[in-house]
Fold these 2 entries.
Entry 1:
Amino acid sequence: MVSMGLFNKIACQKCGKAVRMTFKVGKQLVCHDCYVMLEHPERLKKKKERPKILLSTSATYWGGHIKHPIGKNGESGRLLVTEEKITFNNITFLSKNKWTIEIPLEKVLWDKILIGTGKDIAYEQQMSGWAFFATGLPVSTYSRQTTFFTITFKDENNVVHSPKFQVKNTKEFSEVLYNRISKIKKRELTKEDAEEPLKVLKMRYAKGEISRKDFEQKKKDLEK
Ligand SMILES: [Zn+2]
């Protein structure tokens, strides 16, 4: 239920903020923020959980994902990078043909990432339509190179895919990708560092070099 203070602001009876529009919660008239907090806390949670988008760029997908073969023009769409994954959505007017490739960054085989150059087929096709008639120059004049990113990863079923993308904001994509790689690698290294002493301890216990009591005690110390 809503009441409006058309000329004067009304103080929210929960937080005291002066607002034009109030909502009735029980017997209190409250502001919109308090109303959401009291009546729809799930909305607040959803808002917070939305991942931060590090990069959004138009891109062309050139195959490599087993589930998504391509036509000769590639598949144009949008590439999004968040802290946890890379997502490619194709853009088609027929909604039944819409699909998404999701690449969880944790599942990327970083050593197999390929960044290479090749012929910009999309550009050539686009130019060849009118270039000759418009300029009289041979179509081959409009050939150019572009950068391709091949990102190999394992999906949730452990199937390996190597989708290849041509990205509009090549430089930004490289930077974002590199930053994410560094962060994830660092995280993995710290994890390994933490696991290493425990491995040594287990080994020594297995070899009979230390007693069970010593093993349990040392393990406790390490986990502190
Ligand atoms: Zn309030």
Note: Residues 2-49 form one domain.
Entry 2:
Amino acid sequence: MSSEKWQSHSAEETIKRARALGTSLRPGVKIALVGELGSGKTTFVKGLALGLGVQDAREVKSPTFVIFHMYQGKIPLYHFDLYRLDEHSDLEGIGVEEFWSDPNAVSVVEWADRIPNILKDADLEIRFSRTGETDRMIRMSGTVLPKSLGRKGFHENRP
Ligand SMILES: Nc1ncnc2c1ncn2[C@@H]1O[C@H](COP(=O)(O)OP(=O)(O)OP(=O)(O)O)[C@@H](O)[C@H]1O
Ligand SMILES: [Mg+2]
């Protein structure tokens, strides 16, 4: 298990860092995002999508009525948003369990803490907190960081 945190000062910076992460992800990686409303989770997913080669990352938005989107990139990206679920739900119950565990895609889930099993099952957990108008503290932890991501590549993009 390794972890790191950084302070983002703008949405653009969050996208840039997430994009760098996206380029180094392997298929099968499961990412859990946790943080209050407006803390930057969807913004981060946009960056991931760019890094994964999704052509139109502007498509990436917080789903309002659906809880699942997929985007076609070099590696497919599955994007879940569990905001509307309660803790008694499970992904199986809503029929997307097999997507979450797809070894050929990267899965990312907003409000992952709504389903404790999802949080437990994730390879990478990213927590967002709002520390100012455009400041966000972003903490990442997980087993996938050093091995699959390559910490070197990750640090190269530090300002
Ligand atoms: N440093 C930053 N990182 C990310 N977003 C930022 C930052 N500074 C300002 N913002 C703005 O904050 C908002 C974050 O919204 P976003 O939809 O990404 O949050 P969210 O965590 O997905 O919220 P929700 O829980 O409602 O889905 C955007 O309008 C974004 O432009
Ligand atoms: Mg969102």
Note: The CA atoms of residues 19 and 140 lie 15 Å apart.
